[in-house]
Structures are given as structure tokens and as C-alpha cells.
Batch of 3 targets.
Target 1
Amino acid sequence: MNLHQKVAEALNKQINNELHASYTYLAMAAYFEGQDLPGFASWFRGHSAEEGTHAMRIFDFIAKRGGRIELEGINKPQTDYASPVDVLEQSLAQEKTVTGQINALFELAHEVKEYSTQNMLNWFLAEQIEEEDLFSTILDKARAASDDRWNLLLLDKELAQRGEA
Ligand code: OFO
């Protein structure tokens, strides 16, 4: 069965959303490079790469289903942040937005009986639970560290060890 047109359009939009998330995490990595917090920077860099793989999962799915892939421009991400806590708050908010996007996609796929799309999206639903949990854990730690440079350096070291999230 050909990929439903409305679903194909929504999946293309989601490729763009994932790439925008990737670009935003890269901007966050750049912010941390500027703050001399290399552990945070590499953690966000790793997460940026991960979002790229999410985009490619959808890209590959559309291709396999014989749909048309249409790439759009990626909006400029925010490049300045008030503090590490601000970055973590915004990244958690972004993950919540993505969860909403995946839920909406699932709802559409359900509505038009796109069963294989629902199956593909199940992976994303599970992934979003992990990601929201991960970002809220790091946010809690960043809040606990507050503006104390020593605490931030300890958290930075922890994030450097975690490597790619
Ligand atoms: Fe971090 O989210 Fe993609 O899907």
C-alpha cells in the first residue's frame, strides 16, 4: 500500500522538526563551548547527532514506502542563553514539543489506518519517554549546581564521562 499522502507530508515535516532539534542542540553545544564547559558541550553535541539519526529513521521509512522526500530549510536556532539552567529548561521543553509532534503523527496515522507508520512511530514514543526523563534528570542536577562554578565543573565532568547521551 502506498504511503498515505497526508501522512507523507506530516512525516516530511517531522524530518524538519528533528533536524531543527539537532541544530538547536548544536547551538546549545556552542553556548557551552563559550562557557568553558566542555562536558556539557560534548553531551549536547552527542544529542545533536542523535536527533540527526531520528530524522534519518523517518527519511528511510518514507523512502522504503515509496513516498516522496521533500527537504525544507531549517530555521535558525536560538544562539544565546541566560545560563546552563536556561539551556536545560529549554531543551526539556523542546523534547516535550517533540513528544507532542509524535503523538499528533500517531493520531493521524491511526485515523487513516496507516498501520506500518504507527509501528514505526512506536519506537519514537518509547524514545521520547527516555529523552524527557534524561533531560529532566540533567535539569535537576543543573538546578542543584545553580550558579556555583565549582558545582558546574563537577557536573561538567560527569557529563563528559557520559559521552553521547
Ligand atoms: Fe530528542 O527527540 Fe528526536 O524524536
Note: The chain is about 80% helix and 0% strand.
Target 2
Amino acid sequence: MRIDELLKKKEVTLSLEVFPPKPTTAFENVNRAVKEIAALKPDFMSVTYGAGGGTSAHTVQIARDIKDAYGVNSMAHLTCVSSTKETVEEQIQLMRQAGIENILALRGDIPDSSEFPLPEQFHHAVELVREIKEVAPEMCIGGACYPEGHPEAVSKGEDIRHIKEKVEAGCEFLTTQMFFDNSIFYNYMYRLREAGVMVPVIAGIMPITRKNQVERSIQLSGSCVPARFKSIVDWFGEEPAKMKQAGIAYATDQIIDLIANGISHIHVYTMNDPQVAAGIMDNLSAILN
Ligand code: FAD
């Protein structure tokens, strides 16, 4: 099912994200995790696509299995900055052949150019959105947005102007970068709507369940860490079982607050961990029905 239709049809939705195997991980382990996460029956699952060729090889296959073998709606991510037009078109055709209806159109992070010279055929996600519209106009396209501003953006206002361009080019919904302070998200929503960006926005929540995730997630996303969250990591960080429970509780609390404030579409970055996905879904079982 197209995600724009799902978001219109269902009052509250919860989607979960998985990533394909890294060169160092076994495909079987990822497959098992994907199957267990799909068994929780989220509204849809999205599958990431590694920039620079890293973990992109199995994205379409996993998204197809989620839909065909496990009966859950799926979305495939696609990045463009490290790819040629030919590779991008090939990927779109593969998705089409696999019956995938939803693509998250992304620029991707810019790799170190000394290691990987860029083809310079795509510079921004908006160009990928236009490409998909041309090659496969039937696809439902989503885009990324950043409540705290994209780390490279000149200003938050400029960043929102570029989000608006993506929507005008054909993005039917947006999914946010992770954030740990809901008030930042509410403020961002106000600014998006004020700028005339009216498509549905899915709030991206990352349950931090291991101490070593904190630094990396924050470095990648540039997200602020509220004092309440910091004390959880300080207090429970060295004890894995306690940190996991506290991280799931913090993410659940964020989601309940979002839903109670009218933000009813939630995406959880479950990082291939079925226990984390199940913990969140269990905590929300009545709310999601
Ligand atoms: P863009 O929309 O192109 O924006 C990037 C920067 O360029 C911003 O600062 C923006 O303000 C600026 N900009 C945009 N358009 C223009 C323009 N026309 N002129 C000048 N400046 C402009 N990465 C992966 O590698 N694989 C994934 O699967 C993946 N999934 C993601 C899912 C979500 C929900 C999110 C939030 C991020 C994901 N990422 C993924 C990371 C993403 O690729 C990076 O954040 C990347 O740096 C930016 O991608 P974008 O699509 O937001 O880029």
C-alpha cells in the first residue's frame, strides 16, 4: 500500500526501520531480525540504503520479503549523491519489478572525496525526487527532514526552504531525523506549517538502549541531549539490561507525548533489534489499536 494513503486512512501509525547486513555481518542474522520485527505487524517497515555502496546491495530484496513473505507494507530507502544516474535508474527499476510502492528519497551522507570521488550527477535529494517522478511516476515518495536543522544547513530557515522544494518536487510525506526533546519537534512543526509545508510528517524516534549508541547517534544526527535523558545514560549506562529497559521507556514516553499532542505518525529506528521493537509495541498495545 502507498504510505500517503495509509497515513490518510489510519489515525495512528507506527513504523519500524531495519538495515541490510554490513559487509561484516551475516545476511541470515539480519533476515532473522527482519522476520521477528515483521511479526510484530507494524504499519510499515523501511529498509535503509548505504551511501557509497556499503550496505545497499540487499535493500530491495529485504523490502520485497517484508511485503511478500511477511505481509507488512514496506518502503525502500534510496540515496543519490554517490551514484550515477544509471545506478539510480537501475535501482528504481528493481524496486518496480519487486512491486515496491514507496521510496524514501535521500541525498545520502557525502563520503570522504579522497577515498571515493563523487560522480557529481546528483547534489541534493530534490534532484532524486524529480528523477523518481520522471522514471516511475506511480511511486509514493518520502523525504527526510531535520527538527534541529540538517548539520550542513546554513540556517534553519534555509533548511526549511529546501524541504519545501522537495515537497513541491513530489515528496508526499516527510520522516524526521531522531530527536530526544519533543518540544524541539513541536517548534519545528510550527515552522514547517508556517512555511507552507503541509504534507504529513512522521516523527522519527530512536530508542537509545546501549551506552555506546549515544555518542554515535548524536554525532550523526547533531541532536540535543536533554538533561533527563543524560541522567538516564549516566545512571544506567554501565548495566545493559537496565539501560535497555530505561531506553525503551524513554522512547515510549516520547511517543505517548507526541500522540497526546496530535502527532499520530511515528517511525521507530529499531536498529534490527526485535526486543527493542517488541518492547515499544507492547508498551503501546492499547494506544496503537
Ligand atoms: P537534502 O535534502 O539534499 O539536504 C542536505 C543538505 O543540503 C541540507 O543541509 C539542505 O538544507 C541542503 N540542500 C537541500 N537542497 C538544496 C539545494 N537545492 N541547494 C542548496 N542546498 C540544498 N542515509 C543513508 O545513507 N541511507 C539511508 O537509508 C538513510 N536514511 C535516512 C532516513 C531518514 C528519515 C533520515 C532523516 C536520514 C537518513 N539518512 C540516510 C541520512 C541522510 O542521507 C543524510 O542526513 C544526508 O546528509 C542528507 O540527506 P537528505 O536527503 O536530507 O538531503
Note: The chain has a mean pLDDT of 94.
Target 3
Amino acid sequence: MKQIHRITRTDQSHWVGDGFPVRTLFSYNTPDAEISPFLMLDYAGPTMFPPAAKPKGVGFHPHRGFETVTILYQGEIEHRDTAGNGGLIGPGDVQWMTAGKGLLHEEMHSVAFTRQGGTFEAIQLWVNLPAKYKMIDPHYQSITDNRIPMVKLDEEGSVLRIIAGHYQGVKGPANTYTPVNLWDLRLQANHTVELTFPEGYTTILFNLKGSVKINNSTTMGDTELAFFERLGKTISLTALKNSTLLVMNGEPINEPIVGYGPFVMNTQEEIRQAIEDLDTSILSYS
Ligand code: MN
């Protein structure tokens, strides 16, 4: 059995632009957080937005040196970058954006969602890139709901959707630069699942809603995070209520992390260069 390292909860929220009321559930600044290859997890919502005329969101901003993975649960985002790429991310969809050497983009509520209003709920997970890939050309994987394989866990509706990595021989669509398993787990009340991971990987569970008993001993409530020890392979989860969880598992990248806002590199010099490139608009490559 994999042992729990700790369970944490964050109630403090802040706005990203005017569209995303987020709780930052972990970041690479968290002391003794064994989170690599992950860098940060923001959870937005669920928040009700009344119908409006003008889309809310966050205007043009840069990224360099890592990937942003946006997972939509409710609502819709419209994404656009300065190179002319753009698109919609709706419920069940995942956008896996490799910022690489950099881009400038905006993330807004879609026009349709803005007009209709409704509940917005999304996750943005930052995944680090190894040093040798930090300056690759930016690109996107638009992973729509229908491309994400779903493994049935029981007859009552418990399912595991594989965004990245694999589960019981089923492979997820996302291409990753280091080994990552990213799974959307829906567990019906009173059902148990055993998850097995490679030894030595980082393993973090986020419980969006519901309540689960871990390893038959510790209860994790709604909006709580469980960090696991790297030793051991198996975790058992028993749902006490219908639960929605995000399973994050990956091989640690053992390289120094130096971050500044939207840039995550390996050295101060590379951060200084990122700021200079932004000033000279190299980041926008337009
Ligand atoms: Mn962004």
C-alpha cells in the first residue's frame, strides 16, 4: 500500500482576471511538496455566472518553460493566442498546451456561455518540462471529450477516464514529455477501486466533490488533496458518496526549478532572459 503523506485543504481563493475565481491547491512554492513533474494546480469554481454581454476571463499573458493542462467540468472557455491559434474548451474537454519557449494567450469565457450564464468549473494543472524541452516551439493538443477513453469500473456508473498515461492497458490521448498519468475518476457511493502506480512516482489525488476512504483508513472530503509517499504502488479508494476525483501521477523531474509568475525555468538567468524576450516581443513571435 502507498501511504498518505498528508491531506490538505485550501479555502482561500483569488480571481484570475475577472473570469476565474480559483483556489491554488498546490504550487512549487509549497514547502517540502513532492509534486514534480507537476508545478501547480488551480481549481476554479463551481461558480455561478449570470448572463452577461461581455466575456469575462484573463487577457493576454505569457507562459514559458512548462505545459498548462485545462480540464473543463462545467461552462466553456474560448482560447486565443497571438499566433492566431484558438478554440473552444467545453465540458469533458481537455486542452494540453505546451508553452515551450513561449506564447502570449488569453483565456476567456466563451461568447455562448457568457450570454447564457451558468455554472463554471475547471481545473488548470501546470506540468513541468525537462530542461531539454523548455525552449521547444509552443503547440496544443485539443483533446475533446469523445477522444478520452473511459474504463467502466462497475455496473453503477463508476468510470475512469484516461486523459494521459494508461490504466489497465488502455492508453490516454495526451502526448507527454515525461511519464504522466492523468485520470478523471468518477466513483459511485459504496464502490471501491484499487489503483496501481509505478514505484517512485509522485501521486496526488484531488477530490472535487464527494468523499472517499483511502486505504480503508483515512477519509478525504470534498475539495481536499491527498499527497502520497513515493514508496509503494497501490491505493484503494472507497466512495462514501458519489465522488469526482482527479488522479495526478508522474515521474519526478529532478532538475532545479526557478519560477517567476508565468515562467518556470531552471536558472535565474533563464528567467531574466524570458522577461527580456517578453519585452522585445519575441515571446509573441508575431
Ligand atoms: Mn494562461
Note: The helical segments are 111-116, 268-279.
